[in-house]
Specification:
By secondary structure, this protein is of the alpha+beta class. 24% of the residues lie in helices and 15% in strands. The chain contains three helices and four strands. A hairpin with a 5-residue loop joins strand 2 and strand 3. The two termini are 24 Å apart.
C-alpha cells in the first residue's frame, strides 16, 4: 500500500504522487536530529524511511518557528546523507 501511494498519490486526500511522502514530516525532528548528530559527532546520516528524500534535495522546509532550511545536510554540517525507504523503489536498497 505504501509503495502504491508513492506511485499514485492519495486521491482521497488530494495528495499528488510527487508530494506523497516527499519529506516534510522531518520538520518537527530537525532540532532533535541536530542534537543527536552533535552528541555523537556524526559526519554521515542514514534516513531510514526517508520517503522520496526531497527534504535533502529540492524542498525548502519551514518549521513552526519560521526557521527555514534549504539544505539540511549543510545545516547539520554532515558530509553525506543516505536515504532508505522500502516503499520507494529508488531507495529500496540499503547503502
Amino acid at each position: 500500500m505504501y509503495s502504491k501511494l508513492h506511485i499514485n498519490g492519495d486521491l482521497e486526500n488530494k495528495v499528488t504522487p510527487e508530494m506523497a511522502y516527499a519529506g516534510k514530516s522531518i520538520v518537527p525532528w530537525v532540532s532533535t536530529i541536530e542534537d543527536l548528530i552533535t552528541l555523537t559527532n556524526s559526519k554521515t546520516l542514514l534516513d531510514y524511511g526517508s520517503g522520496k528524500g526531497f527534504q535533502y534535495k529540492s524542498m525548502l522546509l519551514e518549521d513552526r518557528n519560521q526557521m527555514k532550511y534549504k539544505s539540511l545536510q549543510e545545516h547539520w554540517n554532515i558530509s553525506e546523507v543516505y536515504c532508505y525507504d522500502p516503499g520507494y523503489s529508488p531507495y529500496q536498497k540499503l547503502p
